[in-house]
Structure formats: C-alpha cells, structure tokens
Write a structure and sequence with these properties.
This protein is α/β, with parallel strands linked by helices. The chain is built from eleven helices and twelve strands. It is rod-shaped, with a radius of gyration of 32 Å. The two termini are 52 Å apart. 30% of the residues are buried.
C-alpha cells in the first residue's frame, strides 16, 4: 500500500462519498475508486460495500483500519511541523564555544539578536581558552567556535573573523587621558598590566616596546582581558587590550585610546569539518558577521 491510497481512503471516510473525496484530493472520481480498489487488494479485506444508487457502506474492518490510518496521519502532521520548524530555524540547539574576550563582550548582543529572530532554538555557550575551544571544535563537539588563530587542525574549518588594532586602556583621570593616541614612549615607567605569557598577542606587544627601547613596570600578568579592565579601573596600571572588551568598560570610567604602532588582535571562526553546518549555525554566523561589521565601522557592539 502507498500513501496516495491511504489519502483516498481517509478522504472517503471523512467526507462519506467518493465524489467529495475526489474534490478534496483534486483528482477524478474514477481515480479515487481505483485507489480504493487497489488498497482493498493490498489489505485483503473489503473497506466499503457498494450498491448501485446507494451510498457507500463502511465495513467494520474499515472502521478499525481508519483508526490506525488517522494515527499515522497525525504522526505525518507532526513530522511536517518538525520539518517546517527545522526549515525555518525555529527549533533545535545551537552549541557555541568561545574565548572570553568575545564571549563576555561581543557574543551576548549577538545571541540576543539571534534569539529575537529564532526564539525556538536553545543556546549552549561555553567559555574557555582558545586552545580548549579549538580542541572542542576538532572533536566536533560544538557548532560554532571563536578563538585566536592556530595551525591547521584536522576536523576544523577555520576562517578569519575579526582583526582589530589594540587599544591602550587607562584608569580614570590618568595623565595620558587627553592624548589622542598613546605611543610606547608615553608608557615608559608606567605600571603595566600584561596579558599572560601563553597569549600570542602578549609577545607582539612586548616586541613593540622592545623595538621602541621602552621599559615598562610590569606589575601584574593575567589571562583574561576583562580581568585587566577591572584591574585598570582600580588604578593599578594601564594595558594594551582588544578594543571589543575595552569598549564594554568605558561606561564604568575606563579610558580607551588608540595605540600606535598598531598591534593586531586576531580572532578566527571555527566550524566542524566532519559534519554539515546546521541551518541554525548558518543563521547565527550571519548575525555574527553583521555585528562584527557594525563594530568595525563604529567601534561599538550594537544592541540587539
């Protein structure tokens, strides 16, 4: 038996007539009669008793069979709704892994906009170091990853996401607050709060000061940019940070100034290579890129 035969049977049972069933299915009456005859042959029992000039008589067997057919059609309706939800990205789970620099300062606004557009999709966000994010992505554990660049890893598709020049962050009222831009020589002898040694950008920053022949007073080293912002706000020193995180703390009084020469902060977008990117992940990446472009143009992360 096939679905078209079952549709014809169901239409006759619901309408009480072959003629009405034909109208509802947009086929001819003889076509409906043939589908019913074929179905009876397949199931091995009579579904209707036919008498000339008399309406079809439903057999008891047809009543029992109709109950099961209705259950099947209810299941098909559920499948159609599920397919529509998947097609419209209105269901499912999106798993995101990101380093803190973007997870804390950038992703919340992106996730808010995604949830506004796709409220049926649940979000799992894990914040870890870049090395952990890359390993999770290589293991195919997440749909989208954001981390610093690395060598090519099996199982990962890696593409440039965001490259921005580092900014100098200063405590409120600092003597350099009115400078248009900060140069290495301006920070000679200043208490300096540095990124940890395992951060690749730390080495680029160190090289800039070495090339300029400037010694800093390295008072604190720490792993996360948001921790540095909090320490700078306490007046413990200044630093060079990614402007995405720094922008989040301006409202708290943090002074952010361009730093010259440019020190690049690079972030990459990772997707799993060994399975297709889901429609939800594609929609999320589109919003990521939309918000990134706004940030690059304005220096601010837009509100959702």
């Amino acid at each position: 038996m096939n679905l078209r035969q079952l549709e014809a049977f169901r239409a006759v049972m619901l309408s009480g007539s072959v003629t009405q069933a034909a109208v509802s299915l947009h086929i001819s009456q003889p076509a409906v009669s043939k589908l019913l005859a074929d179905l009876e042959h397949q199931v091995g029992f009579k579904l209707f008793l036919r008498s000339k000039g008399v309406a079809l008589t439903v057999t008891p067997e047809a009543d029992i069979f109709f109950h099961e057919v209705e259950r099947s059609f209810a299941g098909i309706a559920v499948l159609k709704r599920a397919a529509a939800d998947i097609r419209n990205t209105s269901t499912g789970t999106l798993r995101i892994a990101a380093l803190p620099a973007l997870a804390v300062s950038f992703l919340p606004a992106v996730i808010a906009k995604f949830r506004e557009r796709h409220p049926g999709v649940s979000i799992q966000l894990q914040t870890r170091s870049s090395s952990t994010v890359r390993q999770w992505m290589a293991n195919q554990q997440f749909d989208v990853g954001l981390a610093t660049p690395s060598r090519e890893l099996a199982g990962i598709t890696m593409s440039p996401f965001l490259k921005c020049a580092g900014a100098c962050v200063l405590p409120p009222g600092h003597r350099l607050s009115n400078n248009e831009a900060i140069k290495p020589v301006d920070l000679r002898g200043e208490p300096f709060i540095s990124l940890a040694l395992e951060d690749r950008t730390r080495h680029r920053i160190d090289r800039v000061f070495e090339d300029a022949g400037v010694d800093r007073d390295m008072v604190i080293e720490t792993q996360y940019a948001m921790t540095i912002c909090a320490l700078v706000l306490q007046g413990l020193g200044c630093s060079i940070l990614n402007p995405v995180t720094a922008a989040d703390y301006v409202s708290h009084g943090l002074v952010v100034r361009p730093f010259k020469p440019d020190v690049a902060f690079d972030y990459m977008l990772f997707t799993p290579r060994l399975r297709p990117v889901s429609r939800a992940a594609e929609a999320f990446i589109a919003i990521l890129e939309e918000y990134r472009d706004v940030f690059l143009a304005t220096g601010r992360v837009p509100l959702a």
